[in-house]
Amino acid sequence: MQSAAAVHDEQVLLKVDDLKKYFPIRRGFIKRTIGHVKAVDEVSFSVRAGETLGVVGESGCGKTTTARLIMQAFPVTGGTIQLRRNSGNLEDITGLNSRELYFLRREIQMVFQDPYASLNPRMTVRDLLTEPLVIHRIGTSQERERRAREMLDLVGLQQEYLNRYPHAFSGGQRQRLGIARAIIMNPKLVVCDEPVSALDVSVQAQILNLLEDLQTELGLTYIFIAHDLSVVRHVCDRVAVMYVGKLVEFAEVELLFSKPKHPYTEALLSAVPVSNPSLRKERIMLGGEVADPANPPSGCYFHPRCTYKKAICETEEPEFTLVSEDTTSMVRCHRAAELSLKGVPSVRDMPQP
Ligand SMILES: Nc1ncnc2c1ncn2[C@@H]1O[C@H](COP(=O)(O)OP(=O)(O)OP(=O)(O)O)[C@@H](O)[C@H]1O
Ligand SMILES: [Mg+2]
After folding, report:
1. What is the distance in angstroms between the CA of the first residue and the CA of the last residue of the chain?
2. Which site in 19, 101, 179, 309 is 20 to 30 Å from 186, CA atoms measured?
3. Which ligand has the minimum distance to the alpha carbon of residue 65?
4. Helices and strands in the chain, H and E counts
5. Which ligand is nearest to the CA of 57?
6. What pLDDT sits at residue 348?
């Protein structure tokens, strides 16, 4: 019989350890490096096969950079990214050569925020959908066309649309095309970077439902980057909260929403609208600016904005550690064990009218 740890490890599709991406800041005539933007720093988490992992945090906290590192769109500054490859083993995908990256693209795909910008306006739907298959020399042209038609069916678009150009579609339809293009190669992992943020609220729900249906049907694993925490609660299994390039909390979604452990998570949750007025809560107004990742504060990066800070928070950076022995939740806060922070009640806990 396998140990619990081994079984748990087998469920892991992607494992990120101590991930770092520092962008150089260059000045002057000879472009001397005068510092670094630590866009992603000491980030470690894992994604289980078949789950949806949410990544949240304010603008500029490093969500897209994390996504692009996982895609290997640019090299890491440090750390490892392991993906369970076809061999069944977790393999480090950092530092792959161009030929190896070519094969990696079949396994990890991305859906972007802006369906307008991510689809080439001069290509027909047929060309847009079959392009990845052409690049990877998969199938004959008839087989590729059949696959493109299948994809249109799958994402709820009519097959007659094959000859149209992207401008003839609405925002929601374009995002359906973006999703079809991402899944046509049968990837294991789809990284969705704010996939519904640019869409009308009514259309957002349709696209979220489509992503959910595709996950069930095709067994996909998602990394879901979002600003909107209500959406995250709806679609994610676990959530990673980022602040200035670092992970500050990582937990199962219901636990994170009902019992946040980091003051920053509590502040983010306080801005989530609640439909029941009897449960309305005080909104925590975060004072001050988001810290600059090129020049972060001493100690805990969040301390200048934190209402719970103590002297140690200003001088010593907290470790990212387990909240307690009996959970898998991780937090980066000196006071996590003693604070009792406010969450958002679950829909199930709300009094019935
Ligand atoms: N190519 C780059 N060169 C220099 N700095 C960069 C580059 N890409 C991102 N950054 C910086 O890295 C930090 C993280 O950016 P990133 O785009 O990952 O944030 P984000 O969380 O996706 O934000 P948003 O919610 O606005 O999309 C920011 O300070 C950004 O200015
Ligand atoms: Mg982004």
Report:
1. 49
2. 19
3. 1
4. 12, 12
5. 1
6. 58
